[in-house]
Amino acid sequence: MHTMWKGSISFGLVNIPIKLHAATENKDVKFRQLHKECQTPIKYKKECPVCEREVGHDEIVKAYEYSKNKFVVLDEEDLAELKEASGDKSVEILDFVELDEIDPIYFEKSYYLSPNDGGSKAYALLRQALQDSGKIGVAKIILRSKEQLAAIRIYQNTLVMETIHYPDEVRSADDVPNIPESENIVKKELDTAVMLIDQLTKPFEPGNYQDDYRNKLLSMIEHKKNNEDVTIEAKQPKQDNVTNLMDALEASVDKANKSKAKNKSKSKKKTSTSKKAK
User: Fold this and answer.
1) What domains are defined for the chain?
2) What is the rounded CA–CA span in Å between residue 217 and residue 107?
3) HEC secondary structure over the chain
4) What is the four-CA torsion angle of 227, 228, 229, 231, rounded to 10 degrees?
5) C-alpha closest to that of 124 among 151, 158, 91
6) pTM of the model
7) What are the tens digits of pLDDT across the range 141-159?
8) What distance, in Å, lies between the first and last C-alpha atoms of the chain?
9) Tens digit of pLDDT for each residue in 83-122?
């Protein structure tokens, strides 16, 4: 697994040398843009509209636009000095908290942490201490020129660092438009909705879910690559006979019950076949 960062975790006087690895990967299908006429990839040039010429990488500087067309330029020395002052190679655990005290809206990206040379014992110590206490560590780290808040926790016997948003990075839910303050909920509708939730409740198994659109897209690409005909399964039409909320809830509950009965029947057949085989 590729190492993307090396540093250390510190809590109290304990210092653990670690390596950082991306825990997730983006599997979006990426497209290139081609010139339709000759199928050549399109290139993008960085040009200055004032000088009317292409600009090289060594001519580009970073700047912050504090108002329209007004900038503060920051050179690499400024940024390097700031990184050095912030101690960009350490993950400092500030506090220990309960995981369920952090709402999922704050979580951003996951990274695996592995011990670097000489850090195995201290790594195992922190892992066991988190396990026994049931707590997670709240830490700070400089990552990609940004100070990140992070949570250190355990996932399948491995320490994981979850970067989390600062409170001022999470937009207020009060600003979301058209949210009803209260509605006159009919008890029968509520009871049926709760019944539907109960019918559809099951243990979370990540393997049960897949990106159907990506799979179909990759299949289409493969067929086109092999010059084969492409057939796309038509989208199921929506039922027009469900005209109100109560009808929709009852129809959903009925569908869930039929699905559950069908699954039970399949399970019984498998069990019966297995017994006969014995």
Assistant:
1) 5-25+80-169 (2.40.290.10), 187-277 (no CATH)
2) 29
3) CCCCEEEEEEECCEEEEEEEEECCCCCCCCCCCECCCCCCECCCCCEECCCCEECCHHHCCEEEEEECCEEEEECHHHHHHHHHHHCCCEEEEEEEECHHHCCHHHEEEEEEEEECCCCHHHHHHHHHHHHHHCCEEEEEEEECCEEEEEEEEEECCEEEEEEECCHHHCCCHHHCCCCCCCCCCCHHHHHHHHHHHHHCCCCCCHHHCCCHHHHHHHHHHHHHHCCCCCCCCCCCCCCCCCCCHHHHHHHHHHHHHHHHHHHHHHHHHHHHHHHHHC
4) -120
5) 158
6) 0.71
7) 888 778 889 999 999 999 9
8) 44
9) 666 555 678 899 999 999 999 999 999 999 999 998 999 9
Q: Per the structure block, which two tokens stand in for 6?
A: 């090396």
Residue type, 22: A
Q: What residue type is assigned to position 260 of the chain?
A: K
Tokens 């039922």 correspond to 239
